[in-house]
Amino acid sequence: MTAASSVVVVAGGGRVRDEIRDEGAGALVIAADGGADEALRVGLHVDILVGDLDSVTPEGLRAVEEAGAAVHRHPVDKDRTDLELALAEAVEAGAPRILVAGGDRGRFDFVLGNALVLADPGLADVEVDAWFGEATVHVVRSERRIPGRQGDLLSLVAVGGPARGVRTEGLRWALDGQDLPAGVGLGISNEFLGDTALVELREGVLLAIRPGRDLPEA
Fold first, then answer.
1. If you compute the radius of gyration of the chain from its CA atoms, what whole number of angstroms results?
2. Are strands 196-200 and 97-102 parallel, antiparallel or unpaired?
3. DSSP 70
């Protein structure tokens, strides 16, 4: 299989941003179960549908099948979520970048799990971003320059253990080599000074989260 230049994974959990239509143009589009209905709603052609198919509507399933999508059905009793299965398909496609689009509604455990799975070691060689509702998530493994706007919020959350040697540029409260243990508030609610920020770390994984403009701070 020829490597894809980029992959868009459409997950469930509510409405995805309509802008995913532009990101999906020319990309390999993988739907995680009920994400197929959202992909169809915004006008994306689904190349691969994966999951146990317990949430995609019969109409959505029929539409993607008739459009030529490959359907990879898994048992309901499985050890990985539909998004994990879709991400595995994305890695197999060989693309250097994956964008996940999902909602931020429904069961909290699914929303949380969908965010945390972005830091899976199996994705270490891929640039990974995600849109969950209004929030944008960038996975940082060593260094990333993150776009924003002056005054936008940016939170840095360590996943899977401490993020060591974190350094930032372009944020109101700079970090200069500090360690961020998982589950602490030190990296929460920082603020862009301009239209970009640099985030570096020596070891670990960070989720750099832009919660959305004009949302209340914690």
1. 17
2. unpaired
3. E
CA atoms within 13 A on the CB side of 79: 0
The β-bridge relationship of strands 48-51 and 70-73 is: parallel
157 vs 204: CA distance, rounded Å: 11
Q: What is the mean pLDDT of the chain?
A: 92
Residue 102 in contact with residue 35, Cβ under 8 Å?
yes
- Residue 161 CB burial class (10 angstroms; 0-12, 13-18, ≥19): exposed
Residue 66 has phi, psi (to 5 degrees) of: -65, -25
Strands (E), 46-191: 48-51, 70-73, 97-102, 127-132, 135-140, 143-147, 153-158, 163-169, 176-180, 190-191
């990879």: which residue's tokens?
Answer: 72
| DSSP structure string for 94-115 | T-SEEEEEE-S-S-HHHHHHHH
Q: What is the pTM of this model?
A: 0.91
Q: Reply yes or no on whether the pLDDT at 216 is more than 50.
A: no
SS3 129: strand
**Quick one: which of 5, 13, 3 has its CA closest to 117?**
13
Smallest CA-to-CA distance from 81 within 141, 21, 9, 20 is with 9
106: its two tokens: 């429904």
Per-residue model confidence as pLDDT tens digits over 33-80: 999 999 999 999 999 999 999 999 999 999 999 999 999 999 988 889
